[in-house]
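Handout, page 2. Input:
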Amino acid sequence: MSGIVLKNVTRDYPVKDGVRRALEPISLDIGDGEFVCIIGPSGCGKTTLLNIMSGLDRDHGGSVAYTEPGAMTSYMFQESRLLPWLSVRDNLAFVLDGDRNTKDRLIDEWLDRVGLSGFSRDYPYQLSVGMQQRVAVARAMIVSPAILFLDEPFSALDELTAQRMRTLVLELCEELDCTVVLVTHNPLEAAYLADRLVIMSGQPGRIVDIRDLTHLGRPRDSGDPELWKVSREAVAELTQSDVTEN
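Output:
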């Protein structure tokens, strides 16, 4: 596993009259094996920050470093982004190195973990949205990442399926002992999953608060009133921040 250290990270985009600042200087330390959730209103730069942390966006100010240089990372998007011309099995094989026997063993193991053992020869279009996301989970985790980046991977799912997926991802991340950074619009989801909750506001995006949620313990009950309390407080803080800006 690996932590992440951000120092004075900024992001500017060119516009007709100069540049538009998307992120104010952001400094944040994410510990090894920590599950951090980032919430904030649309357009505050959550995904931009995630892309910078993951290395997908390198055109930024400041610095990003992993405490384990060269750490293996994975990224899950809002959509499954499976390759439609490949079967489920071949979508997983696509991200793997090694001989055929090693690949087959890992693929069978991970399809079993996400409950899709009988669908290895199916194509993405033959699967429900929830099943496609389970394949995406397997694809992200099969490489045993030290750091997993999640950009609203449950937002397109119905709530029952989303809750199952949250529990599955949490169990797998704990099993692999990886560091996780999740971007979400759902404060209750964040309260259910996070060790720490990072609250952003903007524009330009900036961190307005960081809340330690480790006192909630694990496993957590999604119906726990304490989670609802954390969610309401986060929404109130975002609302107050928006009022202050305007």
